[in-house]
Amino acid sequence: MASPSFNDDLNTWLDYWSHVHVTGIDLGLERVIPVAEALGVVRPNAKVITVAGTNGKGSTSTTIASILQAQGYQVGLYQSPHIYRFNERVKLNALEVDDQSLIHAFVQVDQARRACGLSLSFFEATTLAAFVIFKQQACDVWVLEVGLGGRLDVVNVVDTNVAVITNIGLDHTDWLGDTIEKIAFEKAGIIRDGVPVVFGSQQRLPVAIAEKTKMHHATLCVAGEDYFYQLAEDGQSWFYASQGVTLNLPLPKLAIENVATAITAVLQSELQVTQQAIESGLLNAKLAGRFDVREIQSRTVIFDAGHNPHGVAFLLKQLHQYLQSNAQFTKVRAVFSMLTDKDIVSVVDLLQPAIHHWAVAPLNVPRAAPLQQLTDALGKNQVSSFATIAEAFEKTLSETQADELILVCGSFHTLEAVWEYLLNVDEQ
User: Fold this and answer.
1) In what order do the strands lie in the sheet with 404-409?
2) N or C: which end of the chain has fewer CB within 10 A?
3) So what's the pLDDT on residue 149?
4) Burial 131-140 (b: 16+ CB within 10 A, else e)
5) Which of 188, 172, 175, 152 shows the shortest CA–CA distance to 52?
6) How is the chain split into domains, by residue range?
């Protein structure tokens, strides 16, 4: 397959990477490591903080990067998936990289993989391109969000200085295993000899993580045991405490449990940070699609990309707090769709007590759940069916009353479809 060139646009390159390899997901590092070595990105001259976990990775990695940027470090942040633009995946000091930077990195990745005689998946090639950019920009810190699992994910070709595991839930079971322990084993693959490990959940520490930490003689910091966080009685601030550190902090835009995990990771990194940088960083940290509250045509819309039971349980916790603080809202309408290989029934079971009316439609992606699967899962709930998410959102927005808010949820793709619709409306 002929390669694009420097003169081709970003979409041409992204289409190219979608077709170079036989499968979209191909876990394993055998093909990736030689290319990464050729690019010189395996052992960067930078501090590396790697974030794995089932949910909360985006909020945690965003907050880590924001705190370190507030301190004055040059920070490269890699995340996936994107919601609207591919450029969202690669940020330098919180700014998305431009198309030309990505294209130049893609050319280098393609040249390296051809020299090695190897094929790369879309995710592998694009992740390596992010590393090339961080190296070229001489970033002081690389904050890397793991895409899938940990042990065999391409992010894991780079040795980390701090290993963060936000939590463990049952997701991607076809790839990672069907038990918490099997999934924890995969996530624990990011742990290295002697590096600090942060486990950001107050769930029982999986044996796999404890054993991997001990094997590598690593320091383990566990939420609720080695660091603590609590909302202040007035609800206007919160407290963070770990060994030798107690902080009274302003409320962040992102979830406190993820922000606390981020602070712990930063403190464990041995990078110098002040309380002022921590405060500024958590206040500036924002992430599209994670309990993302927006006003659209005088109606309140919450976008949340939670797509598994663990993520939706956390969404509901935040929704409950929001409704307590905003008593004018008495009902919630959902614009909802999911991928067919997700646990749709469990997600619906969790959400349905909070939802007054559902507007559902199939997604326009290969793994979309068909409309029948969605309506079957919703059973006797109040449901309106539509051909597209755009139609579902447009109708819901027109019917929503002043005492109702709209929750757009179920998948990153659901959010993307609504935002694309809104963009088209703005341009008309």
Assistant:
1) 292-296, 299-304, 404-409, 331-336, 357-360, 383-385
2) C
3) 64
4) bbbbbeeebb
5) 188
6) 10-284, 292-427
379: left (phi over 0), alpha (psi -120 to 50) or beta: left
What stretches of 110-153 adopt beta strand conformation (E)?
Answer: 141-145
Residue with tokens 């904050």: 143
- Work out the average pLDDT over 66-85: 94
Nearest-angstrom CA–CA distance, 307 and 351 = 11
pLDDT number for residue 321:
85
pTM greater than the 0.90 cutoff? no
CATH architecture of 10-284: 3-Layer(aba) Sandwich (3.40)
Distance (Å, rounded) from C-alpha 41 to C-alpha 109? 11
Alpha-carbon span 344 to 214, nearest angstrom: 37
Asked, as a colleague might, if the bond just before 81 is cis with ω within 30 of 0, I would say yes
Residue 5, burial from CB neighbour count under 10 angstroms (0-12, 13-18, 19+): exposed
The tokens describing 98, both together, are 């431009």
Among residues of the chain, what percentage have pLDDT more than 90? Answer: 73
Residue 289 is encoded by which pair of tokens? 């699609």
Q: Is the pLDDT at 235 greater than 80, yes or no?
A: no
Cβ(197)–Cβ(213) under 8 Å?
yes
* pLDDT (0 to 100) of residue 255: 86
- What's the whole-number mean pLDDT along residues 269-295? 93
Task: Give, in order, the Cα–Cα distances in Å from 211 to each of 55, 181, 386.
Answer: 22, 11, 49
| Segment 71-86 mean pLDDT | 92
Take residue 65 and report the two structure tokens written for it.
Answer: 């990067």
With 80 as the cut, is the pLDDT of residue 16 above it? yes
Q: Each residue of 169-192: pLDDT tens digit?
A: 865 444 455 688 888 988 999 999
CA atoms within 13 A on the CB side of 72: 4
Q: Between 344-351 and 371-378, two packed helices, what is the crossing angle to 10 degrees?
A: 40
User: 114: which residues sit within 8 A by CB, 6+ positions away?
Assistant: 3
Helices vs strands, H then E, count in the chain: 15, 17
pLDDT value of position 107: 97
Question: Beta strands 95-96 and 141-145: pairing type?
Answer: unpaired
The percent of residues above 70 in pLDDT, for the chain, comes to: 94
Query: Could you tell me which CATH number the domain at 292-427 has?
Result: 3.90.190.20
